[in-house]
Specification:
This protein is an alpha/beta fold. It has a domain at 1-85: Glutaredoxin (3-Layer(aba) Sandwich), CATH 3.40.30. The chain has helices at 12-23, 38-48, 74-83, 115-126, 140-148, 166-170, 176-184, 213-227, 252-262, and strands at residues 4-7, 29-32, 54-55, 58-59, 63-66, 69-72, 100-105, 130-135, 154-158, 192-197, 200-202, 208-210, 234-237, 270-272. The strands form four sheets. A six-stranded parallel sheet has the order 7-8-9-10-13-14, with helices on one face. β7, α4 and β8 form a beta-alpha-beta unit. α1 (12-23) runs parallel beside α3, α5 packs parallel to α7 (176-184) and α8 (213-227) packs parallel to α9. The radius of gyration is 21 Å and the shape is elongated.
């Protein structure tokens, strides 16, 4: 079945997907929800309502329906068109608008050949979107390329802890030299924030614990070691909900200890609340 692309009149992100499909000679049926596709989309929405995101500004377009699946949003749609399921996990829904796109994580999992992801960044940037990219330090060569090529307008560096804890936190090992490599590319020419979330670390006995203040300080020390500077926009993010795990919440005094120890290496360190940035 030919892919169906639901668009909205005047939608910049819809035009970007259409440009890619035209350049690559991909046949599709376009259905503009304001004109020829109004009734078709009403029916499509009724059948697929649970799978279609609707935010405070309404439904996000474009929506690509291909191979029996829904791909909503410019990043997700392009990732499928460019690489099939290869980029699953690397691209997710953007929560930015007004010319910006987020939902792009270069460290979602180990990626030996990142050409598809880099091509996606390049295409988005060349077509007028400002890119917010996320990393946790994995895939450092891909990160360096993306920054060197100036495809990224803002970088969120989620520093999960010292390198020896990455396996426990993410399930994937990260050698310290690779983490140092990723941190070393942070320069004043890049708009970036380093965020250290206080993660839950599973224990061998089935119980979980929080990343400790001392471990957070070791992570901050790595930033100083990699860059030779103590002055970076460095933030501690308090834990999100523990998802039913029986563990006491951290108190404000506990967060101050994290900040105090991290400031030995990152003098601008501060505490974020929830999803604030």
């Amino acid at each position: 079945m030919m892919p169906r692309l639901f668009t909205a009149t005047g939608c910049m992100r819809c035009k970007i997907v259409k440009t890619y499909m035209a350049q690559n000679q991909i046949d599709y049926e376009e259905l503009d929800i304001n004109t020829n596709g109004k009734e078709a989309f009403k029916e499509f929405y009724r059948k697929n309502r649970p799978d279609i995101f609707r935010g405070i500004d309404g439904i996000e377009f474009p929506i690509l329906f291909a191979d029996g699946r829904i791909y909503q949003g410019v990043g997700i749609a392009l990732a499928h068109l460019m690489a099939g399921e290869t980029l699953d996990g690397f691209v997710f829904r953007s929560d930015l608008s007004h010319g910006w796109i987020s939902g792009l994580n270069i460290s979602a999992k180990p990626l030996a050949d990142g050409r598809d992801f880099l091509s996606l960044l390049e295409f988005l940037k060349d077509n007028g979107l400002m890119i917010q990219l996320e990393t946790d330090g994995r895939n450092p060569l891909l990160l360096e390329t993306a920054l060197t090529e100036k495809w990224v307008h803002r970088l969120i560096f989620n520093l999960l802890g010292p390198a020896d804890l990455y396996t426990s936190i993410t399930g994937f090992a990260l050698p310290e030299d690779e983490l140092l490599h990723s941190l070393s590319v942070l320069t004043p020419s890049i708009d970036y924030h380093i965020i250290l979330p206080i993660s839950l670390i599973p224990g061998k006995d089935g119980e979980s614990r929080y990343l400790s203040p001392e471990e957070a300080a070791r992570a901050a020390e790595l930033v100083e070691k990699a860059t030779g500077s103590k002055k970076h926009p460095f933030f501690i993010r308090e834990p999100a909900g523990a998802n039913g795990i029986n563990i006491a919440p951290l108190q404000q005094a506990d967060l101050f200890k994290y900040r105090t120890l991290c400031r030995r290496h990152m003098v601008l360190c501060d505490i974020l609340k929830g999803e604030q940035l």
